[in-house]
Design brief:
Blueprint lengths: L1 E6 L8 H15 L3 E9 L6 E8 L2 E9 L4 H15 L3 E6 L1 H4 L8 H4 L8 E6 L12 H19 L3 E4 L2 H8 L6 E2 L22 E6 L9 H14 L4 E6 L3 H14 L4 E7 L3 H10 L2 E3 L11 H8 L3 E4 L7 H9 L3 E3 L4 H12 L11 H13 L5
Parallel strand pairs: 1-2, 1-5, 2-4, 5-6, 6-7, 7-8, 9-10, 9-12, 10-11, 12-13, 13-14
Antiparallel strand pairs: 3-4
Length: 382
């Protein structure tokens, strides 16, 4: 089987969907699937660039990086030429509207795809759909356009298989008469095994926040609950560490919290780290914290990374409290919602992780499962 992946940008360690696509393609190559990647709107390069990685004795993975500055017709020509050269059985579009246009309005994609002359079948992985029209006034104009363009693109490509990462998006797609099934995310951060694994400390507690800190998250309630937890349990100090690219809002917020919270509640920023350093920090932590809302946990790469490193994740933003996605969230013991039972559940979970003497993390477990599900969907596995 030959699969061509099409994404927006590919810049290792910078673009989450690009990293996802690359890890998935590498894994598929290792099990005998011929893959290549086209980054069709790459903001990180100024000239056409081709990168090749040797995967196995018989397999190389090639990434063609087409600059965002190229004209629509030039992108169409380059993509069409690559399809003719590679002759894929499947073309897998890794869809995020903002990776193809700064405003998330992807009308030029119809031109980019116009030169493809191939009998290849289309697959779509819809990582994001359209923005929430209720978040701010301008969204009320942009969101309907994004929804219309996505529906038009699906009608234009007529993909044989459509996937998305979470049940909430399955329902949103159903609302525009599109049938999709779930393909869970895997961690973009490979497990870097720590040969000197330290047992979790019996004093204090260490939280980690990985990646972007959303402006919609207000930390006051979490801080109140942690202060109440510390008073009731006597467990101090509490450290909350931000790793990776927190964004400008996250950096400023952490600086403010570090200056205004008690000494025993410490906020630290580590900023950008290598993948190996991120993995080690995740292994050192007792718990994760996400600023992603509960109904969209399945689309978060940082949540996937924390879960892959066997962290229980604190979820302060409990939203869209209805539907199958909310029922699944409440049943999933890998998450602790910030609700009335928070302190009790946190203490119980801490007692479980405290003193753990071995690191039993299995690398690539979820990646292998996702690869198998994808191949089965595309007919590559009987």
């Amino acid at each position: 089987m030959r699969i061509m992946f099409v994404c927006g940008t590919w810049e290792p360690g910078v673009d989450g969907v690009g990293d996802y696509t690359y890890r998935l393609a590498i894994n598929l190559c290792k099990i005998g699937v011929s893959c290549n990647i086209v980054a069709i709107n790459d903001y990180r390069v100024k000239a056409l660039k081709k990168v090749s990685r040797h995967v196995s004795e018989k397999t190389n993975l090639t990434v063609l990086r087409i600059p965002a500055s190229c004209s629509a017709m030039e992108k169409a020509r380059l993509l069409g030429s690559e399809v003719s050269l590679r002759r894929p059985d499947w073309i897998s579009l890794q869809y995020v509207p903002y990776s193809f246009n700064r405003k998330g309005l992807i009308w030029k994609m119809f031109l980019w795809l116009s030169h493809i002359r191939s009998g290849a079948k289309w697959h779509m992985m819809t990582h994001e759909l359209w923005i929430d029209p209720n978040e701010k006034l301008s969204n009320r104009v942009i969101a309907p356009l994004q929804r219309l363009l996505l529906r038009g693109l699906i009608f234009y490509l007529r993909p044989m298989v459509i996937h998305t990462s979470n049940e909430y998006y399955v329902e949103k797609l159903r609302s525009i008469n599109v049938n999709a099934s779930r393909l869970p995310l895997f961690s973009n951060i490979a497990v870097h095994h720590n040969t000197h694994f330290d047992a979790k400390s019996e004093s204090g507690i260490r939280f980690v926040v990985f990646g972007s800190i959303h402006a919609e998250w207000k930390p006051s309630r979490l801080i109140d609950e942690l202060e109440g937890f510390a008073d009731e349990s006597g467990i101090k100090p509490i450290t909350i560490i931000s790793i990776g690219n927190a964004g400008s809002h996250g950096v400023k917020l952490w600086q403010k919290l570090a200056a205004t919270t008690p000494d025993w509640l410490e906020f630290k920023q580590m900023g950008s780290l290598t993948a190996a350093e991120i993995s080690l920090e995740l292994q050192r932590a007792d718990f994760g914290i996400t600023t992603t809302p509960s109904h969209l946990l399945g689309k978060s790469g940082s949540v996937a990374a924390m879960l892959a490193h066997k962290l229980i994740v604190i979820v302060p933003r409990i939203e869209r409290c209805y539907g199958l996605w909310h029922q699944e969230f409440l049943r999933d013991r890998r998450f602790i919602p910030l609700d009335k039972q928070f302190r009790q559940r946190l203490l119980s979970a801490r007692n479980e992780v405290c003193g753990r003497q071995e690191n039993n993390i299995v690398d690539n477990e979820q990646l292998n499962k996702v690869s198998e599900v994808l191949l089965r969907s595309l007919g590559g596995i009987e």
